[in-house]
Write a structure and sequence with these properties.
- This protein has 18 helices and ten strands.
- The strands form three sheets. Strands 1-2-8-5-3 form a five-stranded mixed beta sheet, sandwiched between helices.
- Helix 5 runs parallel beside helix 10 and helix 15 packs across helix 17.
- The longest helix is centred in the first third of the chain and has 34 residues.
- It is globular, with a radius of gyration of 26 Å.
- The N terminus is likely disordered.
- Bound molecules: protoporphyrin IX containing FE and 2-acetamido-2-deoxy-beta-D-glucopyranose (NAG) (4 copies).
- The site of one 2-acetamido-2-deoxy-beta-D-glucopyranose has 7 residues, from helix 7 and helix 8.
- The site of protoporphyrin IX containing FE (HEM) has 23 residues, from helix 12 and helix 17.
- It is found in: Membrane.
- One of its GO terms (molecular function) is oxidoreductase activity, acting on paired donors, with incorporation or reduction of molecular oxygen.
């Protein structure tokens, strides 16, 4: 009896409900086609199980030695240029075409805002340039970009060169050098000197450790329990804020002029200006000093490491680079240090830097959020969705860059397609430190290739887990021999 009842129900379902639904569907289709000429598609993709979505797959990718970009790469191969997924209960669309990049990054329609995951926003602070509201961002960015003038870049080049020369000179005595670790120390030291003339060994070491803890916390689940990465990151942030308070307090009292970023940002006691509202407040200064350390140290050090690796794998490029650098060395050898102008005499090295940045794609995608329902490339993007410009996929698109997996610096002899080279982003949120980052990479590779040859000690290609910017787990350990020693003992 029961069975029959169900059967009846099924019949009813099959003969009445389905045809009705079908008719409705047809009607909708007709309406749709008459109101819109091109039907917008919803991006393809697997949304996974409700609420959790594909969070578990994403976390697994973060915790794998292929790097978390693998999560994106797999889906991009499966679904194409534009796909969506669901992570931490939110819809994320990834898109990888130069046209979409242009539309989203230029933000001419004003439909896309910057969006960071909660854990990152809490770690860098809500006054940080990365997370500030549109209005605040304008004010802070104008203050900060004034600091990256030609004159200050010149003095930064000199400082960075001094640091690099000093440190590279001690490499003779070591049996193994881990490029990433050395680059991290040098870039931190250079950035801290530039920001606030911080040179104290003890404080630099503390910062090094604490900034490392913040990096590790950035991708973690924002859970405040004492044993979590996130909690440890927040504690590290607190310690850094105390140090910055101490430095700012001392600077306010001091009458001496210091030629660093902090001095330019502070209004000192006794020199209160009329336009005080347009000055930055203490918390804004502190959050943004931390932001510049976080945005500049790890990115630049990772980029240097990838560049050395790519050069090692491409002996022709390395030879040509060394040729250019040694010719320049003959010219500048009388001067103690490289100048900003010298960096303009390194056309090949500049292309090596650019090509390495393309291949490394240190910041693999740029997160934005749609403020309105809108359409991109024929895909519907709903208000509130996260839309990420997948720069790494664009950098490896073989329609744009031939043989994308090969280091070919000469590909930049000609101008590249607009919005195809996105290592530093584009539009109103372009990297503030791009000239500085390029300069640091050029100086480092100049000093390395003109002083040493190196031999790789561990060819493990695993990517470090839990890092925001992809870097080699091994850190690229090498053994170095001085180029001069070689001349003296040609058979060694
Ligand atoms: C090779 C090294 C570097 C790379 C690959 C890099 C890459 C980027 C990218 C792609 C963005 C934009 C992200 C987006 O649009 O969502 C960005 C923003 C930023 N970068 Fe860099 N960066 C590097 C070095 C530096 C350095 C050395 C500094 C400063 C000391 C710096 C400071 C900043 C700041 C402050 C922003 C935020 C700008 C804003 O939101 O208005 N970066 N960086
Ligand atoms: C784009 O423009 C809108 C409106 O002016 C603004 O609210 C938003 O913050 C902008 N996005 C970025 C990334 O600057
Ligand atoms: C490093 O080695 C050089 C010779 O290769 C030597 O002159 C110098 O004193 C050594 N420095 C240290 C700190 O051991
Ligand atoms: C640079 O070398 C000096 C020794 O000459 C060392 O004390 C310092 O820690 C090094 N700094 C970096 C950033 O490696
Ligand atoms: C952007 O938003 C406006 C409303 O602010 C909307 O009219 C427009 O269609 C949107 N742009 C696109 C490309 O969808």
């Amino acid at each position: 009896m029961q069975l029959l009842h169900y059967n009846n129900l099924f019949c009813w379902f099959w003969y009445i409900v389905i045809p009705c639904l079908g008719l409705q569907y047809l009607l909708l289709q007709v309406l749709w086609h008459t109101t819109r000429k091109t039907p917008a598609k919803i991006p393809a993709g697997n949304r996974g199980i409700p609420f959790i979505g594909e969070t578990i797959h994403f976390m697994a990718a973060i915790n794998s030695n292929k790097g978390f970009y693998d999560f994106i790469k797999i889906r991009r191969l499966k679904y194409g240029n534009c796909f969506k997924t669901n992570i931490f209960g939110q819809t994320h669309v990834f898109i990888s075409s130069t046209e979409a990049a242009k539309k989203i990054l230029r933000n001419e329609t004003g439909n896309f805002t910057k969006r960071y995951i909660k854990s990152i926003a809490e770690l860098v602070g809500d006054q940080s340039l990365l997370c500030a509201s549109h209005h605040q961002h304008k004010l802070i960015r104008s203050h900060l970009s004034a600091l990256f003038s030609r004159a200050s870049l010149s003095s930064m080049v000199k400082q960075f060169d001094e640091l690099t020369v000093n440190n590279l000179s001690t490499w003779h005595n070591k049996s193994s050098i881990i490029i990433l670790h050395e680059a991290l120390k040098i870039t931190l030291e250079a950035i801290c000197k530039m920001l606030m003339t911080l040179e104290e060994k003890k404080e630099l070491e503390m910062l090094h450790k604490d900034v490392g803890l913040i990096y590790e916390a950035m991708l973690s689940f924002p859970l405040r329990l004492p044993w979590t990465r996130f909690y440890k990151g927040l504690q590290a942030r607190k310690r850094i804020m105390i140090l910055l308070d101490k430095i700012i307090e001392a600077r306010r009292r001091s009458k001496e002029k210091c030629d660093d970023f902090l001095d330019h940002l502070l209004i000192k006691d006794g020199e209160k200006s009329i336009e005080e509202e347009t000055q930055l407040r203490n918390q804004q200064i502190k959050d943004n000093i931390l932001t510049m350390i976080i945005a500049g140290q790890d990115t630049t050090a990772s980029a240097i490491t990838w560049m050395i690796k790519y050069l090692d794998e491409n002996p022709e490029a390395l030879n040509q680079l060394r040729g250019e650098q040694q010719a320049l060395q003959q010219k500048v050898s009388r001067k103690a240090h490289l100048t900003f102008e010298d960096l303009n005499c390194m056309p090949y090295a500049s292309k090596v830097v650019k090509e390495s940045l393309r291949m490394a794609s240190i910041v693999p995608w740029f997160p934005r959020m749609a403020l309105q329902d809108c359409q991109i490339e024929g895909f519907t993007i709903k208000k509130g969705w996260n839309i990420n410009v997948d720069a790494k996929s664009i950098h490896f698109d073989q329609m744009i860059f031939q043989d994308p997996y090969k280091l070919i610096p000469s590909r930049f002899d000609d101008d590249s397609k607009p919005y195809s080279f996105l290592a530093f982003g584009m539009g109103g949120r372009t990297c503030l430190g791009l000239h500085l980052a390029r300069a640091m990479m050029l100086v480092f590779v100049y000093r390395l290739t003109t002083s040493y040859r190196w031999k790789l000690l561990d060819s493990d290609e695993s990517i470090e887990k839990w890092t925001l910017f992809s870097r080699l787990k091994s850190g690229y350990p090498v053994h170095v021999t001085g180029i001069d020693e070689e001349r003296e003992f040609p058979n060694a």
